[in-house]
Amino acid sequence: MPPDATSVRDARRIVVKIGSALLVDRATGRLRSAWLNSIADDVKALVAEGREVILVSSGAIALGRHVLRLPKGALALEQSQAAAAVGQISLSSAYQEVFQARGLTAAQVLLTLGDTEERRRYLNARRTMDTLIACGAVPVVNENDTVATAEIRYGDNDRLSARVATMMSADCLVLLSDIDGLYTAPPAKDPTAKRLDVVRELTPEILAMAGDAGTELSKGGMVTKLEAARIALGAGTDMVITEGAAQHPLRRLGEGAPCTWFLATSDPVAARKRWIAGNLEPRGIIVVDAGAERALGQGKSLLPAGVVRVEGAFDRGDAVTIRALDGRDLGRGLIAYPNDEATAIMGKKSGAIATILGHAGRAELIHRDDMALNRTERT
Ligand code: GLU
C-alpha cells in the first residue's frame, strides 16, 4: 500500500460495497455463506476498533431470480424487480443472522435515486442512518429495486455506494470487486496491463482505462467504478478498489492486499461545508439573536429558540442564510423545516415543537453538520 494512502485502518467511517458476484454463487444461485461469515468477522473487528461501518450490498436480484426460476441471461426490468422483491428478504435475513451471531445489529435501508441524488434532499436518509450508527447498528443498504423504475434507477451499486458514502460523509469507500484494482487496460484482453496503486485525479487517460460493463450477476464494470470515484473524490471521500472474492477481504485490505486507491484532496466535512457555502442558492434568511450567534460560534446547532425572524419561501432541506440581528451574514445552512413551520416555532423551546406543529420534528432548526459559518471577526 502506498505510504500516503489513507488506509482503511485510518478511516473513522467506512462504506463497503459488496457485489453480487461475491455474495452469490453464480452456478447455484445460493449465498456464499462462508464468505458472508468472513466479512461479518471483518465488520465486527472494525466496529470493535471504534469504526463506523455501512454496507452497501447487492445480491437481491441474483438470489431472487434463482428462487423464481427466471431464465439465465439478461432479465427484463420487471423481472429484475420481481427477483429483487424475493431476494431482498433472503439478503437481509442472511445479514441479520451473521451479524446477530457476532453481537451486531443489522439495519436494512432501501434507497432510491431520489433519496441520494440531490444533496439537499437527503437530509432525512442521512439523519436516519446517523441515528442507526449512533445506536450501534450496522446499516445494510441496497437500492429499492422493486419500486425504482428505469428512469429513476441507479441499476448498479457502485454509484449507489458512492452516493451513500458522500451522503454519510464517510472517510473511505471500499469497493469489493472481482478485480483487485484499476489496470492500465482491461487485463483479460491485454496481458501487459498493470494495476495502478494510486489515482489522484480522474484524467481522460485514467477514464480511458475502464473497459466495458460487467457480468450478468453484477451490473457495474470499471466504468461505473470510475463514476463512483468521481462522486467520492468530489465529496472528499477516498475510494479503494480491491479483490473481494476470497475470505476476509477487509482484513486483507488492512494488511496491504493489492488494490487501487483513489485519493481525495479534501476531507468530507470540509467538502460538504464548501458545498453548502458555495453551491446552493439560499432560499431564505434566518435572523438569530446574540445568544444563538454565540452558540453557533461554539460549534452548536441552531435551535428554534434563538431565531427572531424568518424570511423567504423555502422547503425543508433548502439552503438559507443565517444572519445576525445587526445584519451581518453568519453563514449558510440546510434548514430542517419549511418556512411556515420555521416561523411557527421560532423563539420557542425545541420541546414545544410537537405541540405547535402537531407532529414531532427535529430539535434543531439547522443541524451543525448542515451548516457552513463564515469566518468573521467577532468583537
Ligand atoms: N441492487 C441490485 C441487487 O441487489 C444489484 C445492483 C448491482 O449489481 O450493482 O441485486
In a nutshell, what does this entry contain?
The longest helix has 24 residues.
Write up this protein.
This protein has about 375 residues and is an alpha/beta fold. It folds into 2 domains: about 270 residues, Carbamate kinase; about 100 residues, PUA domain (Archaeosine Trna-guanine Transglycosylase, Chain: A, domain 4). The protein contains 14 helices and 13 strands. The protein has an 8-stranded mixed β-sheet with strand order 3-4-2-1-5-7-8-6, sandwiched between helices. The chain has a 5-stranded mixed β-sheet with strand order 10-9-11-12-13, with helices on both faces. Strand 11 and strand 12 form a beta hairpin. Helix 2 crosses helix 4. The chain is globular, with a radius of gyration of 22 Å. The N and C termini lie far apart (about 50 Å). It binds glutamic acid (GLU). Glutamic acid (GLU) binds next to helix 3 and strand 4. The site of glutamic acid has 15 residues, from helix 3 and strand 4.
